[in-house]
């Protein structure tokens, strides 16, 4: 797969076809609310950078969504900085790495926040219903929710990969960007 296809216009499709559940949920929350809380913004921006979305495109995507609710000036003052920061354009100019599953799973997630790992954060019925709404068969949604309830978050994520991608999950999911690359075809299974 060619990473030049990673453009703002096809992120909805990539979210549906190639994102792990954590990132698909954040993407859909952003598209629905045109806003994300700080922890969510950080988790998703670094992921977007990791899948190969260019800085200018990422800034435009962020601007397009946020300015559906707020004016351009407020966006530039309050929300553009984090995009620059994540891409190493300001501050210490560090090139921050996208978060691994272990980091996402162990970081604390406050009430009402949408980031983190859904297999850990969500109640079993919420998870099951979401999976079914994404087209999984009921028995497969139950299987994944039970794995999550037992604390096997990354294994549950691997099962979601199998049931949505219709191919075996040979590698343990350790990173949302690894999930994307494997789904998108950048890593051979
Ligand atoms: Fe995201 Fe990792 Fe959780 Fe999968 S296991 S949903 S990639 S944090």
UniProtKB/TrEMBL annotation:
DNA primase large subunit C-terminal domain mapped to chain residues: 13-180
Coiled coil segments of this chain: none
* Similarity comment: Belongs to the eukaryotic-type primase large subunit family.
- Relate the protein's function as given in its record: DNA primase is the polymerase that synthesizes small RNA primers for the Okazaki fragments made during discontinuous DNA replication.
**Protein name as annotated:** DNA primase large subunit
**Species this chain originates from:** Nicrophorus vespilloides
Gene name, Swiss-Prot/TrEMBL: LOC108567178
Full-length numbering of the shown residues: 276 to 464 of 468
């Amino acid at each position: 797969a060619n990473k030049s296809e990673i453009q703002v216009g096809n992120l909805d499709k990539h979210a549906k076809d190639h994102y792990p559940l954590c990132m698909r949920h954040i993407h859909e929350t952003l598209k629905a609310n045109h806003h994300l809380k700080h922890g969510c913004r950080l988790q998703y921006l670094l992921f977007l950078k990791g899948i190969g979305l260019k800085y200018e495109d990422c800034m435009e995507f962020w601007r397009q969504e946020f300015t559906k609710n707020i004016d351009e000036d407020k966006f530039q003052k309050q929300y553009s900085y984090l995009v620059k920061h994540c891409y190493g354009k300001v501050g210490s100019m560090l090139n921050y790495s996208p978060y691994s599953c272990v980091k996402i799973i162990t970081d604390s997630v406050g009430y009402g926040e949408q980031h983190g790992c859904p297999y850990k954060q969500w109640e079993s019925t919420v998870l099951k219903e979401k999976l079914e709404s994404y087209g999984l068969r009921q028995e497969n949604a139950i299987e994944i929710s039970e794995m999550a309830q037992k604390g096997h978050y990354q294994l549950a994520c691997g099962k979601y990969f199998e049931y949505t991608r219709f191919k075996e999950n040979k590698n343990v999911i350790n990173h949302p960007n690894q999930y994307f690359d494997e789904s998108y075809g950048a890593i051979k299974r």
